[in-house]
Amino acid sequence: MGEMPDTVYVSVPRSLCLKTRTLTLIIVGTMAQLYKAQDVLIDAVAADIPADQMDQLAADPEIRSVVRNKGVKSSNEPLWDGWATNYPITVPHDGSPDAQPTTDDTIWDMVNPISIDVGADVVHSQQPGITGKDVGVAVLDSGVFIEPKIKTAFDAHLTNKFSGQVDFVGDGTCPPGSGMDQYTGYCYSNKNTSYDGFGHGSHIAGIIWNKIQDQDTGVYLGIAPDAKILSVRVLGLDGTGTYADVIEGIQYVVANKYTYNIRVMNMSLSAYATTPYFEDPLNRAVEAAWANDIVVVVAAGNTGPGSETITVPGNDPYVITVGAVGNPRTPGYWGDDYLTGWTATGPTWDGFAKPDVLAPGTYATSFMYNDPNNMSQSDVLVQQHPDNAVASTMFRMSGTSPVSYTHLTLPTSCVQW
Length: 417
What we know:
Strands 7, 8, 9, 10, 12, 13, 14, 15, 16 and 17 form a ten-stranded mixed beta sheet that branches. This protein has a four-stranded antiparallel beta sheet with strand order 2-3-1-4. The protein is globular and about 90 Å long. By secondary structure, it is an alpha/beta fold. It contains eleven helices and 20 strands. The chain has helices spanning about 20-30, 55-60, 115, 120-125, 150-155, 155-160, 200-210, 245-255, 280-290, 380-385, 400-405; strands at about 5-10, 35, 45-50, 65-70, 100, 105-110, 135-140, 160-165, 180-185, 185-190, 215, 230-235, 260-265, 295-300, 320-325, 340, 355-360, 365, 390, 395.
């Protein structure tokens, strides 16, 4: 006697009639019994088939497939408490300051280390740790300024991990007496002379490669703390730029990818889409970078929540476009995260599903210079939003810029944060 029967769905080509399908099951073996009436909708029948005759049935050339009559259940709330980390994070946020310095400039007391929320701390702690070691990351933004205390605390690290800054804003001329190096079409500066009067580029670079550790958890604040940053300055003092300057910067990155081992290009900037993606000059430039084996990561834009609000170059299918979720200062606890009302959403004008991924985009704390004695000497974003400044080194910011680790608008282009 054969093994106990198993209920399966047997599918046959539509060209075979229902009578033929029933007969096919009967001739497989005397124990084959119709489980339910024939299913005309999907050209299949459910039948009880002895397990030892299943192979014979599957080998029948007139049988399209044999699939188990699987069980289903209601989609209830998932059995998950919302936690993605074991660190003792306070939920909800208790109102403590976003960042407080300690007596050691390499360690800060942080409320919202983004590295925990995205799981970067997990890969950092692996053996060997994945920290972006020696991977070159080109950051196209408003530049990078390294505050004196940070420069002192991480001098050796910066010497090895900051590849310098190339400035393409305007005609790329170095300021007189700046100590920078003038080249044809651009100005080069090192860790001691690099400049970011707007503040946005410093903030983004810090999120990528900040080597500061959180006092309570010991995690690095940077997503890739051992990466090598090449700052490509394409946005001016007001956070605006032009296609010409940005494309010139991309061209430099592609031409020098082996010099700096550039594997990733970050663009926390964007422009409104006015043409098909494949005709937009900026998109053509990022595609050229992609074709040269450079991963391009860009911000989705802060133009949401309506559909078709993804901006250039985030609307290009060849780049990784990152949107934002809200994180109410509870890193590693996803149970209270929410979709922000300002993150741009797809589909794109060309019909592509975007953004590709979402990441924490609220209360991101990173580098930005704040002069406590003279506000006019602080970065422009600090002057515009003094309440977001934390000590002389840190600044709290929200937007799709931190998640892509600002927004160019035609014709003048500007940062959105």
